[in-house]
Every structure is written in C-alpha cells, then in structure tokens.
Design brief:
The chain is built from 15 helices and no strands. It has 277 residues and is mainly alpha-helical. It has a domain of 167 residues: Orthogonal Bundle (MetI-like fold). It is found in: Cell inner membrane; Cell membrane. The complex is composed of two ATP-binding proteins (UgpC), two transmembrane proteins (UgpA and UgpE) and a solute-binding protein (UgpB). Part of the ABC transporter complex UgpBAEC involved in sn-glycerol-3-phosphate (G3P) import. Probably responsible for the translocation of the substrate across the membrane. One of its GO terms (cellular component) is plasma membrane.
Length: 277
C-alpha cells in the first residue's frame, strides 16, 4: 500500500514538473498570440499586459487585406504537399532498395547518400540557383519543389524501418507468386505507416517554414510562398509601429503547421517508442 502511495506521489510530481516545462516551452507562443490581439498604438508604449484589455482583431483583418496573401497561402500549400509527396515516394523506394536488395556498390552508395546529411543546404544555393536559372525554372512551382525532394534523412529513416520488418513477410508473399513490386506496395509499405507519417510531418513543416530558398528562386510576388510574402509586407519600422500586425502574421503562418502536428503527433510518438510496426 505504501509503495502504491509513493508511486502516486512520484507520478504527481513528475506530471507537475512536465507541466511547468510545457508552460515554459509554450510561453513564447502564448506571448506572440497575446500580442497579435493588441492594438498597434497600445504596443508602442508597453508589451507586458498581453492578457488584459484592450483587444482587437484588426491585425488579422489587415492580413486579409494584403492583395496576394491567399495566393501565397495556396503557393505554400502546393509546394509543401508536392515536396512531401516526392520525398515520401523517393525515400520509400530508395530505402527499400538499400534495405532489401543486393546490388553492386550498395554500401558505398549508401555512405554517399549519408554524406548529404553533413552538407549544409546553404552551400548548395549558388549552384542550385544557377542550375535552375539555366533551366528557366525561376518563379515556377518546379523550382520551388524539386530541390527539397532529395532527402538523405528520409532515405536513412525508411531504410532503417524496412530493415526492422521481418523478411518472412516478403518470403510468404513471394511464395504466393507475388512480384517484388506487388509485395512492396501491398505487404511491406503498409507496415511503414508510422515512419511515413513522421517523415511526412517533418518534410511538410520544413518546407512550410522555409524562407531562404523561396527568397532565392521566387522573385515575383505571385510566386511568393507565405513566409516570403509576409516578410515582404514588413516595413523597416514593423517592430515599433506594427508589432501587433507582425505577431498576427506569425500566428497566421504558423497555424497550418500547428494543425498538422496536432493531428499527426501520435505517429511521431509511435516511431520514437518503436511501436506501430
């Protein structure tokens, strides 16, 4: 009985500690959210009273009045979804190839792919920009999507996950005269749903929040992504004259990403603890 009581107290203390950590982690987000509902004139004098009047939703209406904002939102959605789909397809095929097939130079090629994890993306900006400019892909969806489709981390994650799937599943399917492609699509691939969801979430969020590559490849306002477009509306005095509008922009840009994460976070947990396979 005493052990049960001690265990209960430990659980409560742990939960209280985790709650405090969560509140500390969320405090910047809550601060941004509170400032987004404050009048800009009020924020010129003080920014500490975020949960007391006055409040306003004018900052969010000001976003809607920006001429291209919904085009930028659509651009971000198109680019993020297409890039996520491309990463999932290519990473699954490459990961399965490295994990399940034997071909000459497989280990060396896998090491070369892993070297891609050590190369900062900024180092490839100049050659990529020149390449896409020569191909006339500036200010196009292809130019925004294609550089992010090559994902060494996705290949590594999927190869690791495929190796953890029992080989007997494939052997049983092939004994029933199923081809390798059919075995991959109908037997093996469904087993990797948690890894697919995790990779999809990371890819989508990374693409949605990307600013540097859209800044380089998209120069026309109608081809801006949301992060690039909202940044273009900020003046040199945004922090002093339009802080509420600036915070509303941040919340507007972050809301789709937060929604995606909330709905798919169970798959992140499943991969982290090794379940769902």
């Amino acid at each position: 009985m005493n052990a049960i009581v001690r265990g209960g107290w430990r659980d409560r203390i742990l939960m209280a500690a985790l709650t405090l950590v969560a509140l500390a982690w969320m405090s910047p987000l809550l601060w941004v959210l509170g400032l987004s509902f404050k009048p800009n004139m009020f924020l010129q004098t003080r920014t500490d009273l975020i949960f007391s009047p006055p409040f306003t939703i004018a900052n969010y209406f000001d976003i809607a009045r920006v001429s291209h904002v919904f085009r930028w939102l659509a651009n971000s959605a198109i680019v993020a979804l297409c890039q996520t789909l491309g990463v999932l397809v290519l990473s699954s095929l490459a990961g399965y190839g490295f994990a399940r097939t034997a071909f000459p130079g497989r280990k060396i090629l896998f090491v070369i792919v892993m070297f891609g994890l050590a190369v900062p993306g900024q180092l490839t900006f100049i050659p990529l920009h020149r390449l896409f400019a020569d191909w006339n892909l500036q200010n196009t969806y292809a130019g925004l999507v294609l550089p992010g489709v090559a994902a060494p981390f996705g290949v590594y994650l999927m190869a690791r996950y495929f190796r953890a799937i029992p080989v007997e599943l494939e052997e049983a399917a092939m004994l029933d005269n199923a081809s390798r492609l059919k075995t991959f699509l109908l037997v093996i691939l469904p087993q990797t749903l948690p890894a697919q969801a995790t990779l999809g979430i990371f890819t989508f969020l990374s693409c949605w929040n990307d600013y540097l590559w859209p800044l380089v490849i998209g120069t026309k306002p109608e081809m801006y992504t949301l992060t690039r477009g909202l940044a273009s509306t900020q003046t040199n005095f945004a922090q002093s004259e339009g802080l509420g509008f600036l915070m509303a922009q941040a919340m507007f840009a972050a809301l789709p990403a937060l929604t995606i994460y909330v709905f798919f976070q169970k798959y992140l947990v499943a991969v982290a603890v090794g379940k769902g396979r």
